[in-house]
Write a structure and sequence with these properties.
The chain is built from four helices and seven strands. It has 227 residues and is an alpha/beta fold. Helix 1 packs antiparallel against helix 4. The radius of gyration is 27 Å and the shape is elongated.
Length: 227
């Protein structure tokens, strides 16, 4: 090794160490996130209980519940897309349990069935409490006039349907040909493996570039011999 190689070699090794440490951190985060997802899945699939007196997103998110009531007359339609099916809508209405009114996400209908007549009837629904975070910076504003929504904005839905700001996402069939779209962990981001691979790949590239630079320096004429 020549003197000219010392600085780039140290720079390369330190840089690679930083990149590898970031990759290791993402692997640790991956284990943590997988544990969180396992807890959520266990909570989602647990036996349903009666509606809490004061549901909150901090303590009751994903809680399985069972409620009986009458479906509301008005519906809100939230645009969604499903693989191999295409565009369709979530049908959200009120569930009046006699004294309390909740939002009920009944599930999916195809686009052509959005405005199909649906009977008003009593229903016992099993589902999960949810406070979804559907809206991003690129989500369009809801089309109130056309009753086409692009996100399940709980407060706005509650005002529209005159309910409490509490959403039950059905996992049982509520009739009328509406297919339940139950709560799952698919929407919970878990990109830590991708990030870890990225950092480790960058570390490998960094080391490769360092080795190539040292090789080029060693081949330069006039450099002193190794020390």
């Amino acid at each position: 090794m020549t003197r000219a190689m010392i600085a780039p070699l140290l720079f390369g090794l330190i840089g690679a160490a930083v990149l590898i440490s970031l990759g290791v951190w993402q692997v640790q985060r991956l284990g943590w996130k997988e544990g969180i997802l396992a807890e959520i899945e266990a909570r989602i699939g647990a036996d349903p209980v009666a509606m809490p007196a004061a549901p909150s997103p901090e303590t009751d998110r994903y809680r399985p519940v069972e409620a009986t009531g009458r479906l509301g007359e008005e519906e809100v339609h939230v645009l969604v897309s499903r693989k191999q099916i295409g565009a369709g809508y979530r049908v959200i209405t009120a569930l009046d349990t006699g004294g309390r009114r909740y939002l009920l996400d009944r599930g999916f209908v195809r686009a052509e069935d959005k405005d199909a007549p649906r009977a008003l009837h009593d229903v016992t629904v099993i589902g999960n409490l949810h406070w979804p975070d559907d809206r991003t910076g690129s989500t369009p504003a809801n089309d109130m006039g056309g009753n086409i929504w692009f996100a399940r904005d709980i407060d706005d839905l509650a005002r529209r349907l005159d309910t409490e700001p509490v959403l039950i996402v059905a996992r049982s069939d509520t009739g009328d040909g509406i297919e339940p779209l139950p709560v799952g962990t698919e929407g919970v981001p878990n990109d830590h493996l991708h990030y870890a691979i990225t950092w480790f790949s960058l570390a490998a590239i960094w080391l490769g570039m360092t080795a190539y630079l040292c090789w080029r320096i060693k081949r330069q004429p006039g450099e002193g011999r190794g020390i």
